[in-house]
Write a structure and sequence with these properties.
The protein is of the alpha+beta class. The protein has a single domain, classed as 3-Layer(aba) Sandwich (Aminopeptidase). It has a 5-stranded mixed β-sheet with strand order 1-2-3-4-5, with helices on both faces. The longest helix has 15 residues. The model has no long low-confidence stretch (mean pLDDT 97). Bound molecules: coenzyme A. The site of coenzyme A (COA) has 21 residues, from strand 4, helix 4 and helix 5.
Length: 159
């Protein structure tokens, strides 16, 4: 199978949302909130996750890349840049479950790192959840080093 990584086009968005929402089942902070508090404000975690893609493609559409295997979209990565600070950020990466373990995720990250380099950045940053063993393995194998752990807390506001 031949893998292509190409620039994002606006017509890709529904498919990228579909892949990303499906992929984040089990590794989503919004899903964790929903498990603890129930559906919040009438919007489930899938709606919230899909909205992250809206934010990403609005913030830096030229920093979103799409992975195609034999012409079929199987994954994506989103990025944005702090050019003054020299850091490229990777807020979202997802590969369709049936195409995982073939190096698509690795190539998407390599592509994002090369994109950052070509823009003059010196460092790349990605975040992953403690339960995401694949993420931790993949990112450290690509040169990312753990610098901090964060705890996410949410409070119900009441009336
Ligand atoms: C993370 C993700 C994008 C990786 O995509 P992928 O195409 O499977 O990635 P690759 O095939 O390039 O690499 C996966 C690596 O993880 C390893 N891996 C797979 N399952 C693993 C597990 N349970 N624990 C540890 N490592 C694991 C694979 O062996 C491979 O490592 P290797 O290349 O050293 O053999 C994909 O798993 C995904 O979409 N996950 C759900 C969404 C997600 O977690 N996004 C990132 C949030 S931070």
């Amino acid at each position: 199978m031949s893998l292509t990584i190409r620039s994002y086009q606006p017509e890709d968005l529904p498919r990228l949302k579909q892949i990303t929402v499906a992929a984040f089942d089990g590794v989503s902070i919004d899903q964790g909130m929903e498990q603890r508090f129930g559906v919040i404000h009438g919007h489930d975690w899938q709606w919230r996750k899909a909205r992250h893609l809206d934010v990403d493609v609005t913030r830096d559409p030229a920093g979103v890349f799409v992975a195609e295997l034999d012409g079929q979209i199987v994954g994506c990565i989103t990025t944005w840049q702090d050019r003054d600070g020299g850091i490229g950020h990777i807020p979202n990466i997802a590969v369709e479950a049936s195409f995982r373990g073939q190096g698509v995720g690795r190539q998407l990250i390599e592509h994002a790192k090369q994109h950052f380099r070509s823009c003059g950045l010196t460092h790349a940053k990605i975040e992953t959840l403690e339960q995401n063993a694949t993420g931790q393995h993949l990112y450290t194998s690509l040169g990312f080093r753990e610098v901090a752990r964060q705890i996410h807390l949410v409070a119900e506001l009441g009336r």
